[in-house]
Amino acid sequence: MALIVHKYGGTSMGSTERIALVAKRVAKWARAGHKMVVVPSAMSGETNRLLALAKELAPAKPAEAYNRELDMLASTGEQASSALLAIALQAEGLEAVSYAGWQVAIKTNSAYTKARIESIDDKKVRADLDSGRVVIVTGFQGVDDLGNITTLGRGGSDTSAVAVAAALKADECLIYTDVDGVYTTDPRVVPEARRLHTVSFEEMLEMASMGSKVLQIRSVEFAGKYKVKMRVLSSFTPWDIDINEEAVSGTLITFEEDEDMEQAVVSGIAFNRDEAKISVLGVPDTPGIAYKIVGAVADANIEIDMIIQNVSKEGKTDFSFTVHRNDFAKAVDLLNTQVIGTLGAKEVVGDAKICKVSIVGIGMRSHVGIASKMFSCLAQEGINIQMISTSEIKTSVVIDEKYMELAVRALHKVFGLDQVAA
Amino acid sequence: MALIVHKYGGTSMGSTERIALVAKRVAKWARAGHKMVVVPSAMSGETNRLLALAKELAPAKPAEAYNRELDMLASTGEQASSALLAIALQAEGLEAVSYAGWQVAIKTNSAYTKARIESIDDKKVRADLDSGRVVIVTGFQGVDDLGNITTLGRGGSDTSAVAVAAALKADECLIYTDVDGVYTTDPRVVPEARRLHTVSFEEMLEMASMGSKVLQIRSVEFAGKYKVKMRVLSSFTPWDIDINEEAVSGTLITFEEDEDMEQAVVSGIAFNRDEAKISVLGVPDTPGIAYKIVGAVADANIEIDMIIQNVSKEGKTDFSFTVHRNDFAKAVDLLNTQVIGTLGAKEVVGDAKICKVSIVGIGMRSHVGIASKMFSCLAQEGINIQMISTSEIKTSVVIDEKYMELAVRALHKVFGLDQVAA
Fold it and tell me: From the list B50, B58, B102, which residue is nearest A90 (CB)?
């Protein structure tokens, strides 16, 4: 008998029929003797519907006071779906109770629309579990010290589930979603892509392009920090699948290297076609240039991904970075008008038609020659590499976006990811 | 400069366009120098939508635990509309903040789906008003001592508004709805029906059939208890109507007889065609029969309206009452199977094709001959009276439902309600 947290996404909660199926699945686990806590998202489309109403009323958005009201508004979606799930569980013959974030309480800071969880009081939930109830905790929301409702930002229900699992010291946190696990790469690009039975926490973080479609990255960080055993699995398997089979399905995210891990050096190929590269050329190589460039861009609320600065020649250097493609024009404009003059740099050039492809694997730490195998593979396919960046367990390259599928397929094959692990 | 509470019903909050108009109206009052508190209902249709989802999941409803979740669910409608109104007010350039019932806090007992307000903490709202904010308080909901969300039942937002007005000692509580006041009778039946500029609290209570379409009766009782000045008016007048004109529009509900009241003896004609009459005939006239009959019916959760028992003849009496037409068959069946035998009564007879027509007027207290004028009027129209019941300020008759319009029109004329008051 274990304490298990289930998290169900918006698609899984998308209709009363689906909610009834979620209730049957949770009931199966409860009847197998487990103490059950469930964290549901809002019914799919509900959060967007609510935010669209707000947008109609306030096309130009004011500051903090507006964000406070957005959270009041958006948090109702999860409260409603939580109550509906409690009702569905009661209809299944179980005792069930739902709690809004403030009722638990899930305490957060006051950063409306992107709040961070600070603490979770486990007393109420524990008491209910001990008296045999299934407890539903609304995802995505919390309450600040002044009693204002906050939300955790998009995908925040994953983080809620992991945080609740951490607070309750749950044996496992199962994230039910519309895919059946984490794959070696996107199966839509490489049909031979395989589901990973386990993936390490670090790999999951690095595989943002794969990972972000499956799990909110913040929830993985949270799970790593509190060592929460976390599994991603599908809510579209039959609800009455044998519980022992279900308990080992999907992909387990692991935090300890001595766990039973697959032995591949490279675990997956990640990619991202939403990026654009920008270079500031001919920058006088003096202390503080990185800050002046990156700081100006960050101050404009533009997120920067890769940053590359090569050694300088004749006192000048070239500074390159990638941003989201939507921010490309804004960033180039900003650099031209506000930065390049102050820096005494020559010019700003950029390209929005690029993509980033990465090989990720915790095994890379102890293996040499992985990066060169990647470069050789791309060269054989005639693909020119525009930028390179590496970390301990990842090597990323920026290439022309038209080569993306070709590169991903070739790398997937070269690193043997289409073979079942020994 | 006054402290004013506005309450807007679901139709007034029915779309973002309408919410924007509510914001403009509230802003007009705020800019005129008034401290403003607004209590909105859920957007029209929203509560029904949510409860329909619950019903799909739990066709046969369990007990208390189910009602708790219904309140978690239904309360989200008002929370969302409150946040949207705050956003609309911010877009109008005002500072505005919304509070859920638990945030205020509006404390209630734990009678889920029909909770009663026990206390309201005015500190937070007062502090916001003092710092120049418009405060939006969600209607319809509260929180019990254990931190569970409760709702006040259908139409509860009127009660919320009056309770908030009472707690804040507001100068006036304006209930904006889709009609422009209380009429002498239903204008659809009598085209000459006039809007009353004032109506007494007691008359409003007695005119349930007119009143319940306009105001939730509980809110009127509440207003009477706490002497809240309450006005019913239309939210469909242009929002930029002159504020002095708007402030005297609609119908004011008065609680003191020395206020400037219209002098008519009869203020209005109320009617209700949803009733059915039931008579238990030949009941041995012994102590306790009323309780045995009424108690059995009430235990089956059937609400009883009029009750009439005439003097007995030869130790037997006839006992009559009216119920909602939907409960007619159930009540007759219940009396036949469970009551009539125990009582030793002769038989149960009933008629579902009746209606109740009442004349209501606080002036009746001090005028004689009002009831006889009513009976004579009906006799002249050839309408047979089946039952009569009177209170201090109301005389009700039960007649064949086919005469309803005829009776209401004749009475409206006979009591001079189509004439403008002196």
Answer: B58
Residue A420: the pLDDT is 65
Does B63 contact chain A (CB < 8 Å)?
Answer: no
A79 inside 8 A of chain B by CB: yes
Sheet holding A134-137, edge to edge: A96-99, A134-137, A35-40, A3-8, A172-177, A230-234, A251-254, A198-200
**To the nearest whole angstrom, how far is the Cα of B346 from the nearest Cα of chain A?**
44
What gap in Å lies between CA A186 and CA A407, rounded to an integer? 13
Q: Which of B15, B53, B125, B150 to mutate to test the interface with A (most CBs of A within 10 A)?
A: B53
Token pair for residue B298?
Answer: 């009430």
Contact B87 A70 (CB under 8 A): yes
Using a CB–CB cutoff of 8 Å, tell me whether A307 touches chain B.
Answer: no
Which pLDDT belongs to residue A239?
94
Confidence of residue B264 (pLDDT cuts 50, 70, 90): low
Token code pair at residue A336: 């031209």
Contact: B83, A95; criterion CB under 8 Å: no
Which of A56, A92, A136 is best to mutate for the B interface (most B CBs within 10 A)?
A: A56
Residue A378 contacts residue A399 (beta carbons within 8 Å): yes
Identify any residues that bridge with A360 across adjacent strands, giving them in sequence order: A268, A394
Which of B53, B84, B147 is nearest residue A84 as measured by Cβ atoms?
B53
Q: What is the mean pLDDT of residues B182-187?
A: 87
Q: Which residue of B has its CA nearest to A144?
A: B103
**Cα B67 from Cα B113, distance rounded (Å):** 6
pLDDT of residue B51: 93
Could you tell me how many CB contacts below 8 A there are between chain A and chain B? 128
Alpha carbon of A361: minimum distance to chain B alpha carbons (Å): 45
Which of B93-102, B201-210, B218-227, B348-357 has the lowest average pLDDT? B201-210
* Residue that is written with structure tokens 């199962």 in the block: A174
Beta strands in A2-133 (DSSP E): 3-8, 35-40, 96-99, 106-108, 117-120
pTM: 0.81
- Is the pLDDT confidence value at A188 over 90? no
Name the residue in chain B with its Cα closest to that of A60.
Answer: B91
Over residues A124-145, mean pLDDT = 97
Coil, strand, or helix at residue B166?
helix
pLDDT for B209 equals 54
What are residue B253's DSSP bridge partners? Answer: B199, B230
CATH of region A3-258: 3.40.1160.10
User: Structural domain boundaries of chain B?
Assistant: 3-261, 263-422
Domain A263-422 has CATH 3.40.50.1820: no
- pLDDT (tens digit per residue) in A13-36: 999 999 999 999 999 999 999 999
CATH number assigned to the domain covering B3-261: 3.40.1160.10
Locate the chain B residue with the closest alpha carbon to A92: B58
Q: Cβ of A57 and B16 within 8 Å?
A: yes
Angle, to 10 degrees, between the axis of helix B46-57 and the axis of helix B64-91? Answer: 150
* Residue corresponding to tokens 């595989």: A207
pLDDT tens, position by position, A349-400: 999 999 999 999 887 777 777 888 898 899 999 998 888 888 878 888 999 9
Query: What distance in Å separates residue A54's CA from the closest CA in chain B?
Result: 6
Percent of chain A with pLDDT over 90: 58
Domain B3-261 and domain B263-422, same fold? Reply is: no
Compute, in degrees rounded to 10, the torsion defined by CA atoms B271, B276, B282, B286. Answer: -70
Give the residue with greater pLDDT, B42 vs A114. B42
Separation of alpha carbons B251 and B421, rounded Å? 14
Q: Shortest Cα distance from B139 to chain A (angstroms)?
A: 14
